[in-house]
Known about the structure:
- The chain is an alpha+beta fold.
- 60% of the residues lie in helices and 11% in strands.
- It has three domains: 10-130, no CATH class; 188-257, Helix Hairpins (Orthogonal Bundle), CATH 1.10.287; 265-411, Histidine kinase-like ATPase, C-terminal domain (Heat Shock Protein 90, 2-Layer Sandwich), CATH 3.30.565.
- It has helices at residues 10-24, 31-53, 58-77, 91-100, 103-118, 121-127, 132-224, 230-257, 270-283, 306-323, 379-389; strands at residues 265-267, 289-295, 302-304, 328-339, 342-350, 393-397, 405-411.
- The chain has a five-stranded mixed β-sheet, with helices on one face.
- The longest helix has 93 residues, at 132-224.
- The radius of gyration is 39 Å and the shape is rod-shaped.
- The chain starts with 9 loop residues before the first helix and ends in a 13-residue tail after the last strand.
- The structure holds adenosine-5'-triphosphate and magnesium ion.
- Magnesium ion binds at residues 315, 318-319, 379.
Amino acid sequence: MSQPRRTVSWLDVVFLLFLAGLAVLPPRGEFHKQLILLAFGLVQFVEHQLISRYPRLGPSLAVVLKMGLSMLLVAHTGEPGINSSYYPIYYLPVVTAAIYFGPRAALLWTLGASASYLSFLYPALKEYEFNASSATELATRVLFFFIAALLVNRFAVENRRQTALYQQLAEQLAETNRQLERAQAEARRSERLAALGQLSAGLAHEIRNPLGVIKGSAEMLTQKLKTGDALSAELAGYISSEVNRVSALVTRFLDFARPLHADRKLQPFVPILDHALKAVADAWQGGPIIVERSYEDALPDIPLDEGLCEQAFVNLIQNANQAMEKGGTLHVSAARAQKNSRTGIEVRLRDTGPGVPPDQREQIFNPFFTTKQSGVGLGLSIVSKILDEHRGTIRVEGAPGEGACFVLFFPAENNASKELAPRP
Ligand SMILES: Nc1ncnc2c1ncn2[C@@H]1O[C@H](COP(=O)(O)OP(=O)(O)OP(=O)(O)O)[C@@H](O)[C@H]1O
Ligand SMILES: [Mg+2]
């Protein structure tokens, strides 16, 4: 994420005004003092950029620069330096260190600043007498450096902790939001499928009766016309065979529309998956498909309807194989997972086919959506219904050109609070 461009804030301007205030105070003719104050102003301006560009080294550099400038200022404003009334300038490096570092490092930097200030004692001792009141004065000054460092540091550390906490909360909130959106999309899909199922079941049922009459009539006609003209017999034959085709379609459709009743029993998950993989592989007549399995150890038993689950996996594996007609790799993984505070098993079926374009990722679960010449488009809507029956979820992932990855989640328990325990 790019850092927002920092414009000059009014606080920076006020800081400069205070520095200017120092500049007009005596010693006014001291050219070096004015230069040093200017340098302080510059350092303050570039500090933010310095730290955002070099987050590791920047804070140390800012403190060192300010410490060096403080030394120069004290040296140029006191006779001797230790007596300079500008000694509080050392608060700048001390406070800067307290803002950017943890308590220990802040104390160390303050120790460094105090040592740098006290180093002016050495030349002063050659000319002046060092008595008890001077010692008290110096000790007071240095102790105030530490007090200021500790106070500011406490506030800064707490501030950083709060910021990190808010960031973490914001990330959690964003993730929950994403999960909610996904759950809403899945719920909408289930509702849509249920409504479509009801509507089409009624329609298919109504079509089936007249189809029976048409079929019976066509057969009687064929028998009657056997001795009659050949063209009429052929046409009656067409009616009969086409009615058979439509009838088969209606039957399959009714299978889809009929409410499923999953009879869920606690059982191991992997054998069902392996069985489906084998069933599809045995019947497969396309290019070579390599199956790569990665199952987490000791997956727990979960409540499943064996027949329905196998049907769901067969549909998905068939689709994957059909997507890799000339051959490819199917990665199958199963692992414990947690979704919306429910524990369960997540299965991923990832192929190396062309993948599903983003704009079709929801549509493919609709009945009769197919891009295949001989497809009916019921496979995935049946899978989706089976997952609904298991209170599970399904979605498709995969970047364009990366192959499709179907992600299925089977909850371990109806009761959301129960935790998964490994199988003994
Ligand atoms: N693994 C996959 N890779 C790429 N596209 C896929 C994959 N699985 C499904 N699709 C897309 O989703 C569509 C719908 O799949 P679905 O299984 O519902 O129907 P179908 O396979 O076309 O027909 P059938 O009813 O015979 O299964 C497919 O036509 C295909 O476009
Ligand atoms: Mg299919």
